[in-house]
User: Fold this.
Amino acid sequence: QSVLTQPPSASGTPGQRVTISCSGSSSDIGSSTVNWYQQLPGTAPKLLISSNYQRPSGVPDRFSGSKSGTSASLAISGLQSEDEADYYCAAWDDALNGPVFGGGTKVTVL
Amino acid sequence: QVQLQESGPGLVKPSETLSLTCTVSGGSISNYYWSWIRQPPGKGLEWIGYIYYSGSTNYNPSLKSRVIISVDTSKNQFSLKLRSVTAADTAVYYCARGNGVHTYWGPGTLVTVSS
Assistant:
């Protein structure tokens, strides 16, 4: 069972906006920043969003992140077929002195 | 461009020790944290532990009694040893740069625990 809670699945048609939630606690999301990773089928995770909303170079601005209190969310605007992937949130856990991950959300483009 | 590559046996017998090495290329291992993360088949990501290039470490408490992570700066490598493995340790093992934010990842290597 993962420390951070994500919905197992989300879906949308091409062009739609999809939002993924990530819920934590005061010892993780509530006291640190949130990162998001995209894992395309059969590949390693790739950093998508860091420090709540920062996009690394090369990540399309269709992807955006936000955080409020002990929850965070990832939004994909203008959904494209190549966005079909698993998405994981992660945050630093003060008690663990290490990162914790969400269980992942599988995004399907209908 | 920094690249990471995991290497090691793909099959380990129960009760034995899993040993993996991550080779870093395109950049120095110095001045960074380096992590091991695993993913059981069809499941989510689990942090195993991290090491600073100087050698200081921190491990996931759930694995701490069985894990050792070490670094060899002369070879630009860091390694994972997980002892007394069981079938529950079957997973794709990833090495990555960073301890909180993982900016670069290796492609991963599947390690199966089976007799």
